[in-house]
Amino acid sequence: MTNDIVDYDKKFLNFSMRQSLISKEDEVDFIKNWQLHKDDKSINKIVSSHLRLVISLANKFKNYGLPINELIQEGNVGLMQAVDKFDLNRDVRFSTYASWWIKASMQTFILKNWSIVRIGTTAAQKSLFFKLKTIMSRIEKENNTSFNDYHQKKLAEDIGVKFKDIEDMKGRLAGSDQSLNATFSDNSELEVQDLLVDERASPEQNAILTKDTKTISNLINEALNKLPEREKKIIGARQLSENTVTLQELGKDLGISKERVRQLENRALNKLKLSLQKKVNKNDYLLTS
């Protein structure tokens, strides 16, 4: 990375951190002006005030070896999509809604660019890519033993992928990318790319992949909208907010005990889980958070 690029990145980060946050009322006005009138000043204000959120989320994916500035750019693409899609009638802060779009955009970018060889195209394979190391570490800690074939078989059954998919992903995550023009030996003219099989997705698969994000978002929104207003408010404050509200604070706001808030939260989460399970197969949605 050249000094010019480093200096640019530092200036951009400093600029981003200086941007002021906006109130919920101003946020609604800016989003409405953009959605109805495509007002450039409004969209610029929304984007600049959420740059810190984009940078924060980009840092969570920095260990995948891609430039942080490119992750931020992709995050801004997701942020713009969130502005277009946000429902102003929902009782939730825009930052909570935008976080999902920002992370989805970054994950798609990582999957396309992290490796020359395809990681996988299904939602389960994508979630496996982002979660496998964490899952393996947790299993080893819980069982006080190394991750073995038994654990791998059970994990494959639980998340709906093949045993071989996990084996392949372990190898991909443990290895590093190799040039497609590299030869197998000094005396060989045979290159790596000569043995590669074309595994590109069909137009139908690409169309399905493009719709994944919108489908998942619609399913979650539909499940949330079926909740009673009080339960929806609790879920929004406890599960969807960037700054989680405590049980005591919610209880005071709603005029009930914090234990009652806990009960309503658990009941609402169970309703959401059941609602989503009825609509999607466990292989068809991302497990990443």
Short description:
This protein is mainly alpha-helical and 289 residues long. It is built from 13 helices and no strands. The two termini are 31 Å apart.
Pick out its properties.
289 residues; mainly alpha; Arc Repressor Mutant, subunit A; 3 domains
Strand and helix map with partners:
Layout: H1 3-18, H2 24-37, H3 40-49, H4 51-59, H5 68-85, H6 94-113, H7 123-143, H8 149-159, H9 163-174, H10 203-225, H11 229-238, H12 247-254, H13 258-279
Helix pairs in contact: 2-3, 4-5, 4-6, 5-6, 7-9, 8-9, 10-13, 11-13, 12-13
Mind explaining what this structure looks like?
There is one protein chain. This protein is mainly alpha-helical. It folds into 3 domains: 3-113, Four Helix Bundle (Hemerythrin (Met), subunit A), CATH 1.20.120; 118-200, no CATH class; 202-281, Arc Repressor Mutant, subunit A. The protein has helices spanning 3-18, 24-37, 40-49, 51-59, 68-85, 94-113, 123-143, 149-159, 163-174, 203-225, 229-238, 247-254, 258-279. The radius of gyration is 22 Å and the shape is globular. Residues 1-8, 176-180 and 281-289 have low confidence and may be disordered. It contains 13 helices and no strands. It starts with a helix and ends in a 10-residue tail after the last helix.
* Total tally of structural domains: 3
Summed up, the helix count is 13
User: In one word, what is the shape?
Assistant: globular
- In CATH, the architecture of the largest domain is Up-down Bundle
